[in-house]
Write a structure and sequence with these properties.
heterodimer, A: about 300 residues, alpha/beta, B: alpha+beta, 5-stranded mixed beta sheet, two-stranded antiparallel ribbon, globular, binds fe (ii) ion
C-alpha cells in the first residue's frame, strides 16, 4: 500500500506531574533519546530508530494525561488539502506556527468528537537514527539502553461519540476501520481500531463519558523476547506494571502495560498483523470482548478497562 | 559492610473494612497494602494520575508528593483528602476510601450517558 495523505502518528505531548522524574524515566527506563528542551520548559524525545526530531514531548502540569497528538502527512500540499477538507466537513481548524514545537513545521490543529486535540503537520527535521543513510549498521548503542523501542506506534484514547469520530477519521482523514468491539446491544461501538497505514492500528478509541482521556501510548519492539526484557527492566526499576506480558486477541499483539511516574499508561508491544484498506473489518461481540482484550485471561479486567488519565 | 537502617513501620487502618496492615515509612499507603496482598483501597496507576486510590485520612501524620489536580483539589488536599499512592505514613493512619473504579466501560450506552449526566 502506498502511504499517502495522513502517514503516521508523529508526536504526542504528555502532561507529567514531576518533570525531572519523568525525564529520567523516559530516558533511562523507556530508553528514549532526549533531543531538546524549549523555552516553555517542554522536553523532547524520540525513539532511537525514529528519524524525525521528536515524537514524545513532556510538559509539566498539575494533572496527568495527553495534551495533543500529531500526525505527519505526506507533504505541504496534503496539509493544505486536509485543512480544507476538515473545514468543509464542519470541523474548525487552527494554525499553529512552525517552530512552536521544536524542529516542527506549521500544524493544523482541531478537536475530534471524542474531545482530543489532534494536529496534522508535514515537516519535522530529519535528524536520523544515529546511522548514515549509506551503508548503515542494523543497530547502535542507543538501541540497548533501557527498553529502547523502535518507535512511538499508536495510542488508545477514551471519550464519547465513537460513531461520529469514526466517520471523521474514515471519511475525511483517510483512515480505515480494522477492528471494532460492539456493546451489548450488538450495534453501538464500544471500541474502534483504525489505521492510516499497514499497521493493525494507528489509533484506537474506547467509548467513555468523559472526553479527552488517555488510556495508553504505545511503543514498538521487534520480538516477544524484547517484550520480556521490557518486563524485566520495568520490575528492576520498580515501575508500576498494569498487566502482562500477555497477548491481545484484538490486533494479535504481544504486550506489556505499565504506568509512567505520573500515572500515564504506556505499552511496549511487538507483533500484530498487517492491514490493507480493502480488508473487511473484524468485529468482536460484547460477550467475547474479554478474550479480545487479553486472549489468555478471557475476562474483563477492571483496572485495565477503567483507569485512565 | 554497612548494616541497613532498621525499617520503620506504622499501622494503617481502613475504616470501612477494618483491614489493618503494617506500612513502612518509606513506602506509600497503597504500595504497603499491595505488597502484603491486602485489599480495600482501589489500585490504579500508582502514580498520582488516575484518582482511583483517593482516600480521606481521618487520623495520623504523613508525607506526600504532587498529585493530580484533576482528582484532588487544593482544598481537599489541605483537608486530608489525598491519593494513597502519593502518601507515606509518619505515624499510624486511619483512612476512609473515597475513590473507586468507574464501571462506565461495561455499561450500555444509555447507562453511560446517565453516568455522564451525573458527573
Ligand atoms: S492509583 Fe492512580 S492516583 Fe493513585
Ligand atoms: Fe496499544
Amino acid at each position: 500500500m502506498a502511504t499517502t495523505g495522513v502517514m503516521r502518528p508523529g508526536h504526542i505531548q504528555l502532561r507529567v506531574l514531576d518533570l525531572d522524574e519523568s525525564v529520567a524515566f523516559y530516558k533511562d527506563v523507556v530508553g528514549l533519546v532526549e533531543t531538546g528542551r524549549d523555552a516553555a520548559g517542554r522536553v523532547y524525545f524520540k525513539a532511537w530508530d525514529e528519524r524525525d526530531h521528536n515524537s514524545v514531548i513532556l510538559r509539566q502540569a498539575d494533572r496527568a494525561g495527553v495534551d495533543l497528538i500529531g500526525f505527519k502527512v505526506k507533504d505541504k500540499a496534503t496539509l493544505e488539502q486536509l485543512d480544507k477538507d476538515l473545514q468543509a466537513y464542519g470541523v474548525a481548524t487552527e494554525r499553529i506556527p512552525a517552530g512552536e514545537l521544536l524542529e516542527t513545521g506549521e500544524r493544523v490543529r482541531f478537536t475530534i468528537p471524542t474531545g482530543h486535540v489532534m494536529e496534522l503537520y508535514a515537516e519535522k527535521t530529519d535528524v536520523g537514527n544515529g546511522q548514515p543513510y549509506t551503508n548503515p549498521d542494523p543497530w547502535i548503542a542507543a538501541s540497548e539502553h533501557g527498553i529502547a523501542p523502535h518507535r512511538f506506534d499508536h495510542c488508545l484514547l477514551y471519550g464519547p461519540n465513537l460513531e461520529e469520530n469514526l466517520k471523521l477519521f474514515t471519511e475525511v482523514l483517510g483512515f480505515h476501520l480494522v477492528e471494532r468491539v460492539l456493546l451489548e446491544d450488538g450495534k453501538s461501538l464500544l471500541a474502534t481500531f483504525i489505521s492510516c497505514s499497514h499497521k493493525a492500528h494507528d489509533l484506537a478509541f474506547v467509548a467513555h463519558p468523559e472526553p479527552g482521556k488517555l488510556h495508553h501510548l504505545s511503543f514498538l519492539l521487534d520480538s516477544w523476547e524484547k517484550v520480556l526484557r521490557a518486563a524485566d527492566i520495568m520490575s528492576m526499576n520498580r515501575v508500576s506494571i498494569d498487566i502482562g506480558p500477555t497477548r491481545h486477541g484484538i490486533t494479535r499483539g504481544s504486550t506489556i502495560y505499565a504506568f509512567d511516574p505520573s500515572g500515564n499508561r504506556f505499552e511496549t508491544f511487538c507483533g500484530g498483523y498487517e492491514t490493507y484498506p480493502d480488508h473487511a473489518p473484524i468485529t468482536w461481540t460484547f460477550d467475547e470482548v474479554g478474550a479480545g482484550i487479553f486472549y489468555h485471561d478471557r475476562k474483563l479486567n477492571e483496572r485495565f478497562l477503567t483507569v485512565v488519565t | 559492610m554497612n548494616t541497613p537502617a532498621p525499617k520503620v513501620f506504622h499501622q494503617v487502618t481502613i475504616v470501612e473494612t477494618g483491614e489493618v496492615y503494617r506500612c513502612r515509612e518509606d513506602e506509600t499507603l497503597l504500595a504497603g497494602m499491595e505488597r502484603l496482598g491486602k485489599r480495600g483501597i482501589p489500585v490504579g496507576c500508582r502514580g498520582g494520575g488516575c484518582g482511583v486510590c483517593k482516600v480521606q485520612v481521618e487520623a495520623g501524620e504523613y508525607s506526600k508528593r504532587v498529585m493530580s489536580r484533576a482528582y484532588v483539589s487544593a482544598e481537599e488536599e489541605a483537608g486530608g483528602i489525598v491519593l494513597a499512592c502519593r502518601v507515606k505514613p509518619l505515624s499510624d493512619i486511619r483512612l476512609a476510601v473515597l475513590g473507586k473504579m468507574k464501571k462506565n466501560v461495561c455499561a450500555t450506552p444509555s447507562a453511560a450517558a446517565a453516568d455522564a449526566r451525573q458527573s
